[in-house]
Amino acid sequence: MTSWSGSMGMTRLITTSKCRVRAPERLRLALAASFLSRGWTAVLSLLAVPLYLRFLGVEAYGVVGIFVSLSAVVGLLDLGLGATLTREMAKLPGGQAQPPQARDIARTFELVYVGLALLVGGLGALLAYPLAMFWVTVDTLNRGDVAQALLLGSVALACQWPGNLYGAGLAGLQKQVLFGGVTTVLGTVRVALTLVVIRLAPSLETFFWAQIVAAVVQSSLLWCLFWRALGSDGRAPVFRLEALRDSLGFAGGMAGIALTTIVLTQADKLVLSRALSLSEFGVYVVASALATGLYIVITPLFSVMYPRFSALVHWGAEKEGELARQYHAASQLIAFLLVPLAVLLGVYGQEVLTLWTGNQALGTAGGWTLSLLVMGNACNGLMNMPYALQLAYGWTRLTLWFSVVSIVLLVPCVWWAAVKYGPVGGAAVWALLNLGYLVVAPQILHQRLLRSEKLTWYKAGVFLPAAVCLILAMLAKQIPLTDLSRGSVALVLLAYWIAMTVSLVVLMQQPRRAALALWSARNRFGK
């Protein structure tokens, strides 16, 4: 077993005939930037949710939840181009100016993406009125206001759409520090702008106008940064159809994964938005928003390691030893960061939801829903490094087939459970789906890729952290929190999280070595 600190503490250079990259420094800096930027943006968004609820109300926030689900559904129109551009850019040598064909690929993907943005906006606009009039069940909101809000949301989505491609390109160019700084600032501006306008004029219309302004600024700035990072040789980049044809297989697989993933992840929300009133659906959306907070530690690591894996795979089989080391380092790091947080949220779902929103009734209604959604997201998060490994090799078929089979078997279960048991039923199906994926998919993956690494991955990346944290949390659960104040509950839960994290530092090889490396660096700095 190799350690994360070991992979970060390497002093050798990874060299090839075409590129020379100082791996530890770049990887360390990229990870720090990715975690800080995405973590800050996600935490800020989570902190803003109670304020959104205060100014808009639970029912109006349910409309925001419908818009988020609709955004995910139309996300399948990405056609895998974002992930494909990341992979293509990751293959390029370092330097300020990239080969002309790289700029041609970028221009080709860009023009296709602009067309897709217009299509996304048009589809959202067409769906806004039917959804407001015939799909949702409103209590106090005016259906016309709901339709207008969804229409404005579609405009915001279209304006934000190109920025997704430019962000994927910057990630592939190993510009995570630059991208991280920009997204930190833009995320802060977006939340601050939204809170200011809905404080002055609390309505869904002002909420979505704020999203439109923020989306335009984000896409424009990322466009400038991406093309500047590519550099120029004085020749204007051109559209090349062969660039799309060469990427068709991988992009097609990614598009299929996107389609099936969207069906799986949004089926519960779409069903519940029809089966429940907007007020009830709002409770589910709030629980889902908090459960999605786990991606604070999942997404940053994936965004750094996926292009890293792609580069190692591209530069030849001699890098397989390095690939295995970084694969295990990243897998253990994500488990170390994710599992204590997930276990705490899962075991204390009602308490955390009440603490977060300040609403005891909402915490009681959504506690079990939050616990089950967190379980599903945690299992999904642990699979992110195996998924990144598949994409680095251009192997999309495994995830695609798993998703197709899951849809055939489980989507009817989502419908039945959501209708019969409400939010808890939909959340339970999501948890079981991802638990099954965690158990079965690595068995097949490691028959083809990094064949000798399966048991190591399961032992250190799943079983050990999960067992330790669950045992500690269940022991702590025997101590009642009912008589404590809100501040005291927060301090107790923080202490439990610290206890689980420290236990993993002691028992897991990777976090322990990372902690020792940090301590040694601190001592050297102090001297």
Describe this entry's structure for a reader.
With 527 residues, the protein is an all-alpha fold. The protein has a domain at 47-246. The chain has 21 helices and two strands. It has helices at 4-8, 23-56, 58-74, 81-90, 100-135, 143-172, 176-200, 204-230, 241-246, 248-275, 278-292, 295-314, 320-347, 349-357, 360-382, 384-392, 397-421, 423-448, 454-476, 486-507, 509-526, and strands spanning 14-15, 20-21. It has a two-stranded antiparallel sheet with strand order 1-2. The longest helix has 36 residues, at 100-135.
Which characteristics define this entry?
single chain; 527 residues; mainly alpha; two-stranded antiparallel ribbon
Task: Give me the secondary-structure topology.
Layout: H1 4-8, E1 14-15, E2 20-21, H2 23-56, H3 58-74, H4 81-90, H5 100-135, H6 143-172, H7 176-200, H8 204-230, H9 241-246, H10 248-275, H11 278-292, H12 295-314, H13 320-347, H14 349-357, H15 360-382, H16 384-392, H17 397-421, H18 423-448, H19 454-476, H20 486-507, H21 509-526
Antiparallel strand pairs: 1-2
Helix pairs in contact: 2-3, 2-7, 2-12, 3-6, 3-10, 3-11, 4-5, 4-6, 4-12, 5-6, 6-8, 7-8, 10-17, 10-18, 11-15, 12-13, 12-16, 13-15, 13-16, 13-19, 13-20, 14-15, 15-18, 17-18, 19-20, 20-21
